[in-house]
Amino acid sequence: MPIKVADALPAKKILKQESIFVMDESRAFHQDIRPLKILILNLMPNKQQTEVQLLRLLSNSPLQVEVSFMHTQSHISKNTSRAYLDTFYQTFDDVKNQKYDGMIITGAPVETMPFEEVNYWDELTQIMEWTKTNVTSTFYICWGAQAGLYYHYGINKYPLEKKMFGVFAHTKVYDHIDLLRGFDDVFYAPHSRHTEVRAEDIEKTEGIRIIASGEEAGVYIVASDDMRKFFVMGHSEYEKNTLANEYFRDKDKGLEIDIPKNYFKDDDPTKPPVALWKAHSSLLYTNWLNYYVYQLTPYDINSIGGTHELPKNFDE
Asked: Is 66 a catalytic site residue?
């Protein structure tokens, strides 16, 4: 898929080196089609790394996608310069009167804090409420997924005795659901988190259900019944070396951290990691774009927020 991004975005050069088709703004202007408009609320500290990870995954379909990035106004980034944010990012005030076909809300390194103590929580709740009327489908990742479940459905998160860190096996709860179309019976995804949501809380909550889970990792993907909200507890967007970088960073700081499970060859951190999740990660984002963004969003983008036919995906 040709991805349309700002001409000067540094991630563009990295993606082009990987032979990913990144379209210039000027070229996209002359194409007589309406691209899907995707907004990414990037809450991660290393914003450029997350940009590359997500743009890479949004590139795997024939659809043209116009990607915009947003940051929170109520939090001052320590890892990304103000000049960079001013050049490549928007704020909620900039976008609140616009409509988007899809939105991604990333994770953030604040999971051990109560939601209400996060300094941009009020702003985030405004954004999540706004998605109900201004976005066709929203994809929440890790802490973003926990925040979304808490805000929309009152689902609490719980601290883990030990960090869920590594690559874990998952299975589908429903055989026929388009988000997981083409997935193997067992598939893998990275996790890096200190908290969890619990299946029993979700199962007794109306309007949502678990669609994928793991014996060790627990709840993996939750979907709203109207298929407009997806909550993904892991980091399927991670690159091959992301967990290694986290592990060695914490080791160098003298922090206590276990070797990530099912990741390094022979569980030996002196050996290279083995990526077990890349194909399913690609499918996850491609399926989301195709079945829940492209096929559901109206051609007239200003009509987003109205009624539309919902997919019938659950085995009932």
From this structure: no
